[in-house]
Specification:
6-stranded mixed beta sheet; 4-stranded mixed beta sheet; 33% strand; 15 strands
Length: 185
């Protein structure tokens, strides 16, 4: 199970850079979360969704990236939050640095795993809203559903889709995701 370690200790991105042991971690408000390897089903769903977005974005200014990809949500402030969404879309290339991006991507996607469900649905949802991620998708492989959180006036409006639906990516005009293809594992 992905869980915080050393919860009484607080770290920053500068500390994060010193950990050279190939262990995947996220840092949320200075607390370390070690990440376990995703299942093949998780990877397949992630790949299917990534592929649809990547094909749509070919030749366009926005770019799509897949984890591991560091997103430093508060890089201009405490710089103590580094998450690794499964997929991110970035339309402002000045945000791209080294192994990821500084500040909010335009879109973040999390494919749920048993060990990350609570953090993805609550903690990251609140973080992404707070730091201005315009669109946040939570993909549930078990229920074959997608919850799309779209930022309007600083708060997320939620749209729900099932396996048979086509879900629009609201930040990308005319980008429609066929969820049947996403959940085809």
């Amino acid at each position: 199970m992905d869980k915080p370690i050393e919860a009484d200790q607080r770290y920053t991105y500068a500390d994060y850079l010193t950990w050279d042991d190939d262990v995947r971690r996220e840092l949320i408000d200075g607390v370390i979360y070690v990440m376990s390897a995703p299942t093949w089903e998780h990877q397949r769903i992630n790949g299917n969704l990534f592929m649809q977005i990547a094909v749509f974005l070919k030749g366009k200014p926005c770019k799509v990236f897949s984890a591991p990809f560091d997103v430093r949500l508060n890089a201009d402030d405490k710089d103590d939050t580094v998450v690794q969404p499964d997929i991110v879309v970035i339309c402002d290339r000045t945000k791209l640095i080294g192994t990821g991006c500084v500040n909010a991507p335009d879109m973040a996607v999390e494919v749920l795993s048993p060990s990350t469900t609570r953090r993805d649905r609550l903690e990251k949802l609140n973080l992404y809203q707070k730091y201005g991620v315009r669109e946040y998708w939570v993909v549930d492989p078990d229920d074959k559903t997608v919850s799309v959180h779209f930022l309007e006036n600083g708060k997320y409006v939620i749209y729900a889709y099932g396996e048979e639906d086509v879900a629009p990516v609201r930040i990308l005009e005319s980008c429609d995701i066929n969820l049947k293809d996403v959940f085809d594992i």
